[in-house]
Design a protein that fits this description.
It contains 18 helices and 14 strands. By secondary structure, it is α/β, with parallel strands linked by helices. Strand 13, helix 17 and strand 14 form a beta-alpha-beta unit. Bound molecules: zinc ion.
Length: 492
């Protein structure tokens, strides 16, 4: 049997995020059998270049009932064999992951033929997580592309306006699409802008020479913006000590924004620069392979957790640089995660509120209807959340861009909740009822139990979803507002 792949626009899309380590630990055919039989996967989303233990490594918090039960301590880098011909334009040439497990192995060579025979598409995934560890220490020269904070210090992430970094990505993409027969690419960067980083107590970036030049192109003085950010930093530092400003936390925050009017333009400059790199990647892939199917990940901070970021990222704009998107909707993990986010807000701009009040306020603003603050550490968000969020995304992007929600299947690092098989099945159902044209199994096959993987296939079978999605499954009329609520929860 030869190549039986179909273009995703002609079929239901069932993707799985997966790292090289699973194929090495368990065997290529064995893993593909499991994915196909238990979850009806037809799209592999391998982390071929990664520094993310969650996406590319073995499980980190507990071990599921397959694979090796020992830490791999992923260091990360390229898990394909870099072809030096494509790296002439950059100084960042030595990018191979130093992990002993991966030496001499080429991830895409390993899986390409076996996947093709099964009709599975391959969509390499780059996920830059919000963490800055593990660092890219194995790449000589990486220090030169790092961001710079408002105090002039070099920090932990590469700058999206640094020409060397942008060039490096073109090299990596060319290497992928010229040396391998792959079907597309998924771009996913978990980044906050200059103001949002400061709000969350992180180093606020970037004020490097390239970002300052970009600000001047936008028509304003980057130095004035930097001074504003230093004022804002004092505000957040004071707020976190618990000292209440005379006029309250929110009023003081608004005062700093109103008296330092270059704060928002700088945040806007960052946002446009962040999108520009995604557009550069999209256009580069399309030039190399016009029918490649390019996806964008939408981080859960953007679509769900943060009203500033939801406002900043207009979902409809993804039409410019995405054929499909994977909005992250780990609904069970969302409970404890939102609990922590509320705690952060009540130590700064929502410091005038009790945590329970702030939760209600944020739910109303974000159009969420979930468990009260007191229960969130032990309670996930509901499946209705997945339905509503899918429907909102589909309304923004349909029909031009397909939506494949990223569902939590065995996601680790989620606090005191358990993602059950019934939770997984409910999320699969809610996705298709919300108008999705497929789903993405997240975060990584290596952390899901086989029963979790089977829950995906069972839900698809119960809805009679195979190669195609039967008519009538979607409950969403793109022209109409629909919202399901969780009747047993009296939030307000
Ligand atoms: Zn910069």
């Amino acid at each position: 049997m030869g190549d039986t792949r179909k273009h995703p626009s002609e079929r239901n899309f069932v993707g799985v995020q997966i790292g090289l380590v699973s194929f090495l630990d368990e065997g290529v055919e064995e893993v593909l059998d499991i994915l196909e039989e238990k979850s009806h996967v037809n799209a592999l989303i391998p982390s071929t270049v990664s520094w993310s233990r969650g996406n590319a490594g073995r499980a980190t918090d507990w071990y599921p009932d397959h694979g090796k039960s020992e830490p791999d301590n992923l260091q990360g880098g390229a898990m394909i064999q870099p072809d030096p011909r494509y790296y002439e334009a950059t100084h960042l040439k030595e990018i191979t992951a130093p992990d002993p497990l991966y030496q001499g192995v080429d991830f895409l060579e390993l899986i390409s033929e076996p996947a093709k025979k099964r009709g599975m598409g391959i969509y390499p995934y780059y996920c830059e997580t919000s963490r800055t560890e593990p660092r890219s220490l194995n790449i000589p020269g990486w220090v030169h592309v790092l961001e710079v904070d408002a105090h002039g210090r070099r920090t932990g992430r590469p700058c999206v306006n640094n020409p060397e970094y942008i060039t490096w990505w073109r090299c990596v993409i060319e290497n992928h699409f010229k040396n391998y027969d792959i079907d597309g690419f998924l771009w996913g960067v978990e980044r906050k802008g200059t103001m949002m980083l400061m709000m969350d107590g992180q180093e606020s970036t970037c004020f490097c020479r390239y970002c300052r030049e970009r600000a001047r192109e936008f028509g304003f003085d980057p130095e004035e913006a930097r001074r504003g950010y230093l004022e804002l930093e004092k505000y957040f530092d004071r707020a976190r000590t618990g000292i209440k400003p005379t006029d309250g936390h929110l009023v003081e925050f608004l005062r700093i924004l109103l008296h330092n009017p270059m704060i928002f333009p700088y945040e806007k400059m960052w946002h446009e620069s962040h999108k520009d790199l995604a557009k550069d990647v999209y256009g580069t892939v399309k030039w190399l392979k016009p029918d490649a199917y390019v996806g964008q990940m939408v981080w859960q901070y953007i679509n769900t957790f943060n009203p500033f970021m939801r406002a900043q990222f207009d979902l409809a704009e993804f039409k410019q640089f995405a054929d499909w998107i994977k909005p992250v909707m780990y609904h069970v993990a969302a409970g404890p995660r939102f609990h922590g986010i509320v705690d952060g807000y009540t130590r700064s701009i929502l410091g005038d509120f009790e945590a329970a009040e702030a939760t209600k306020l944020l739910y109303r603003v974000l159009q969420l209807d979930e468990a009260p603050y007191e229960e969130l550490e032990n309670t996930g968000f509901s499946a209705e959340y997945v339905f509503n969020e899918t429907a909102r995304t589909v309304r923004a992007l349909s029909p031009e861009v397909a939506v494949y929600p990223g569902l939590g299947v065995g996601v680790q690092g989620i606090g005191d909740v358990t993602n059950t098989e019934e939770d997984i099945k409910a999320a699969v159902r809610a996705s298709y009822e919300g108008g999705a044209k497929g789903i993405t199994i997240c975060r990584n096959y290596s952390e899901a139990n086989l029963s979790d993987m089977a829950a995906v296939g069972e839900a698809l079978d119960e809805m009679n979803i195979g190669e195609s999605i039967p008519a009538g499954i979607s409950k969403v009329d793109p022209g109409k507002e629909i919202k399901r609520t969780s009747s047993e929860r009296d939030v307000f």
